[in-house]
Amino acid sequence: MGAYVITGGSKLSGKIRVQGSKNASLPILAATILNCQKSRVKNVPEIKDVQVMISILTMLGADITQNGNELTIDTSAVNTWEVPEQLMRKMRSSIVLMGPLLGRFGRVKVSYPGGCEIGPRPIDLHLKGFAALGVKMSESHGFIYAEAGKLKGANIHLDFPSVGATENLMLAAVLAEGRTIIRNAAKEPEIVDLQNFLNKMGCRVKGAGTDTIKIEGCSIADLKPVEDYTVIPDRIAAGTYLVAAAATRGNIVLENVILEHIEPILAKLREMGCRIKTEDDRVELWVETPLRALDSLRTLPYPGFPTDMQAPMMALLATVEGTSIITETVFENRFKHAEELRRMGANIKINGNTAIIKGIKRLTGAVVEAKDLRAGAALVIAGLAADGKTIVEGTSYIERGYEWFDRNLQALGAKIEKTN
């Protein structure tokens, strides 16, 4: 699987540009199925999850040209509604293909998706929403079969503001007959980005970023090519680099950020005592005085503190003297990294969905294993801040979401090498 070998103790310093958003790119790439024409999408990160999505679209019949961070996708020849099982199992986000395939073909066959092991992430909200749109579903031998003669607009109330369910239902509803209203919708910036892409294609979607999204259905004939679309910056990647700089007590500048998107992260870093300067699409962080523990950090749907930043923040708080408390409210079983951090000397106790962290002056290097994407990033951060050598096994998880992670950290002065 590969490993990162890290020699800790170097302060991160310098300037990097933040990659395009992983969590915005994947549903946007899925959306290209809808218009049966060409779409040109820029600022797509070169990460493993994107490569899996490209492979799925190609196997469905799409013609894709990749030039660095720019993709040209022609879906005119897509002719199947069955998603390959072996690829579906590699990535949780592949479930978002159900919506556009239902919209285009009126049917879809998928297996249950794979991905990171961060606790139960049932897709019942997706399926209940599809049922409201007139889809009939059956399950057999690990596959989901869904079929609708024609999707019908509906009023849908999500029991939880699920990002994936909101995206999937948007993607299906744009080609449904009549109006669809999704209430208690997720408000994440990636939902807004998907709306903007769909509207550039000729769809009629409004309300993304609020808890109510309204969609006026249209036909495939109404849709047009997307000649030029740029994906938003990745707020979780930005947060990860900021936390890494704080953990090493360094000084970094990030370019290509949307400040509003990372404000929940900046607020907690300021609360800890980090110095932060923002301007336009740029943020600088540095540490001048000893950092403070956090009495309470609670993960919440946007605009709350993102669950994807919980693990990196735990690694940082393990290096800050005092007692910090993290409460994880979004995903169960998302504390697997705590056990690995304890191998490095961290003092962390888990009680249900709460982690109690008693910071120490210095972590010590150890051999640790990434169990999921964000946990892997957390272990790298811990290694950068630790005494001695740390080996983080499982780089394939980390490469699912971070573009050239080791190279970017090297550019900031980190002593990190990838080995097989």
From TrEMBL:
Major subcellular location class: cytoplasm
Active site: C116
Keywords noted in UniProt: Cell cycle, Cell division, Cell shape, Cell wall biogenesis/degradation, Cytoplasm, Peptidoglycan synthesis, Pyruvate, Transferase
GO MF annotations, alphabetized: UDP-N-acetylglucosamine 1-carboxyvinyltransferase activity
Annotated Gene Ontology cellular component terms: cytoplasm
Gene Ontology BP term (one): peptidoglycan biosynthetic process
Alphabetical list of CDD domains matching this protein: UdpNAET
A UniProt-annotated Pfam family: EPSP_synthase
Binding sites annotated in the UniProt record for phosphoenolpyruvate: K22, N23
EC number: 2.5.1.7
First-tier enzyme category under EC: transferase
Pathway: Cell wall biogenesis; peptidoglycan biosynthesis
PANTHER family associated with the record: UDP-N-ACETYLGLUCOSAMINE 1-CARBOXYVINYLTRANSFERASE
NCBIfam families according to UniProt: murA, PRK09369.1
Entry protein name: UDP-N-acetylglucosamine 1-carboxyvinyltransferase
Species: Thermosediminibacter litoriperuensis
Lineage of origin: Bacteria, Bacillati, Bacillota, Clostridia, Thermosediminibacterales
